[in-house]
Amino acid sequence: MKIVSYNVNGIKARLPRLLEYLTEQQPDIVCLQELKSSDETFPEADIRAAGYGAVWHGQKGFNGVAVLARGADPVERQRGLDGEVEDDHSRYLECDVDGLVVASIYLPNGNPQPGPKFDYKLRWMERLAQRARALLAAEVPAVLAGDYNVIPNDDDVYSVQAMADDALMQPGSRAAYRALVAQGWTDALRIRHPQGRVWTFWDYQAGAWQRDAGFRIDHLLLSPAVADRLVEAGVDRDYRGREKASDHAPTWAQIR
């Protein structure tokens, strides 16, 4: 079973690339982020025509997450995180798919920092940690997949100096991510590529793709029951180089 996290950076603009990916790779479960689409304009018919059922949590022009399943309809468990009733961002969607609990996550960027956006990022990470603890306590096989907007380690970025002041690499961001993993989650890509230097994102600016100036911010965290079934993890980076591609590449874990 291939489980993919894919920040599409606008599902309407990238729909040809998404459908191309679904057709060519035939992943079993796909967690999408940054849909930038309202619930009403989500392209359900096109995705169903490609053989996938879908549940989505949209927001016009911003954010937005979805869970796709090949040949099946995901069953929604929860949308949004508890803890801030005024938070209307579409950033978390949790579904049952083929015996797994799968969450698609689009964590706040947090820039500029310091400031209210960074404070919101850290609060959101604590709310995610609370939900993650509940999933572990329930002992359900779970995958938390998404764009975490956190560069966990120095070898997860092309240049530590270039990103030193960015919210993605601040000590607070990293500490919150490490605390989440320390609950008992397995970072699939890290465990299979412990040497680092595996990128999932290349900015559109300054020829980042051409220079391979990327970093790793898309992560799949596996609960113990899923981690025991992990076969491989990787990045389908070639899709980043296609015409009008997202600035993220599909990031995946294969489990038995």
TrEMBL record:
Residues 4-248 form the Endonuclease/exonuclease/phosphatase domain. PROSITE patterns: AP_NUCLEASE_F1_1, AP_NUCLEASE_F1_4. Probably binds two magnesium or manganese ions per subunit. GO terms for biological process: DNA repair. Mg(2+) binds at N7, E34, D147, N149, D247, H248. GO terms for molecular function: DNA binding; double-stranded DNA 3'-5' DNA exonuclease activity; endonuclease activity; metal ion binding. It holds the Pfam family Exo_endo_phos. It is an enzyme of class 3 (hydrolase). The active site is at Y106, D147 (proton donor/acceptor), H248 (proton acceptor). This is Exodeoxyribonuclease III. The record marks D218 as: Important for catalytic activity.
